[in-house]
Amino acid sequence: MACPAVSRHMVALPTEQPSIEFCRALLAGRVPEDAVTFCAYLLPERAAVWWAHECLHHLTDLLDSRDQELLALVRDWVSEPDSPHHSAAVSNAAAMPPATPAAWIALAAGLRANGSAMDASALSASQPLPAAHAVSAGVLAGLARVALADRFSVLCAFVEMGIQMAEIEALSQSADAY
Question: What is the pLDDT of residues 65-101, one digit of tens each?
Fold first, then answer.
């Protein structure tokens, strides 16, 4: 309920549950893919981009060489987001239409690298595209390449990784508050 933008991209309705409980309920629900979308919005943008990178990194055998190059750019940007070289490379990659899983992640990184100010009008004429939406699209596009028999277990692993990252981020933020 705290993030109305996510409800536009999910089937599930918001509840009063704490975020982690809600995410696990989504995973066990009628549309478990909503848990992927929720993780993308739950995590801070840079962490969400890293989470998506890690998800797709587990699928490298399903990605072509261009997607692997894009993942390398994203990895470099996450490790040094203030580097002008990495920001420029990600921004250039993000300027291309996202047609593959890693292209969506590069778009998310490019949106984040530019403070979410990148012109995304080609994708959404009515409002700017949040980086979380691009993260969700990239992870879901990667999942679509997984064999149907394995898809739910891979989805669960991705969501659990996202939950762990969210818990680590929450601990880090509470430690920073002291």
Answer: 999 999 999 999 999 888 888 888 888 887 778 889 9
**b/e map 58-88, b = 16+ CB within 10 Å:** ebeeebeeebeebbebbbbbbeeeeeeebbe
Closest C-alpha to 38, from 160, 151, 145, 171: 160
Distance between CA atoms of 124 and 119, rounded to whole angstroms? Answer: 9
User: What is the value of pTM for the model shown?
Assistant: 0.84
Say if CB 105 and CB 52 are below 8 A apart: yes
Domain span holding position 87: 45-146+155-171
Residue at 111 is within a domain: yes
* 20-73 tens-digit pLDDT: 998 999 999 999 999 999 999 999 999 999 999 999 999 999 999 999 999 999
Distances (CA, A) of 120 to 33, 95, 173: 24, 9, 30
By the 8 A CB rule, do 10 and 70 touch? no
Query: How many domains does the chain fold into?
Result: 1
Q: Which two tokens stand for residue 57?
A: 């990194």
142 domain-assigned? yes
CA distance 78 to 74: 6
